[in-house]
Amino acid sequence: DVQLQASGGGLVQAGGSLRLSCAASGFSFANYAIGWFRQAPGKEREWVSCINVSDGFTYYADSVKGRFTISSDTAKNTVYLQMNSLKPEDTALYSCAADPFPSRLQHGRADYWGRGTQVTVSS
């Protein structure tokens, strides 16, 4: 079965850093784009970033560009999200998802969704 296991969340002060991991299994990792999403209570889920695994091309939402970096390790079927200069408004449940098309991920659509890991940024 398909699994997308997000991990690495935690509590950090504003200005700090966290590195999230998304371990994928049960599908052809190299043929997919992997995206990160976040959702705070009472708010809509928003797309954060994604990477097209086959060529390594990366995409970022304007709100995180310059602060977050997405990367992949094909040997481990894992995607990472390095989050620097964290702000309180980054507080959310972060989850990863997979779809063959980066454009679909950017529009909030995906073939497969994971459950997520909590990131809390204190002021």
Report on this model:
This protein has 123 residues and is mostly beta strands. Helices cover 4% and strands 51% of the residues. The chain has one helix at 102-106, and strands spanning 3-7, 10-13, 18-25, 33-39, 46-52, 57-60, 68-73, 78-83, 92-99, 112-113, 117-122. The strands form 2 sheets. Strands 2, 4, 5, 6, 9, 10 and 11 form a 7-stranded mixed β-sheet that branches. A hairpin with a 6-residue loop joins strand 4 (33-39) and strand 5 (46-52). The longest helix is centred in the C-terminal third of the chain and has 5 residues, at 102-106. It is globular.
Summarize the structure.
The protein is mainly beta and 123 residues long.
Strand content: over 45%
- Binned, the helix content reads under 10%
Average pLDDT, rounded to a whole number, is: 97
Give the overall form: globular
End-to-end separation:
40 Å
Topology:
Elements: E1 3-7, E2 10-13, E3 18-25, E4 33-39, E5 46-52, E6 57-60, E7 68-73, E8 78-83, E9 92-99, H1 102-106, E10 112-113, E11 117-122
Parallel strand pairs: 2-11
Antiparallel strand pairs: 1-3, 3-8, 4-5, 4-9, 5-6, 7-8, 9-10, 9-11
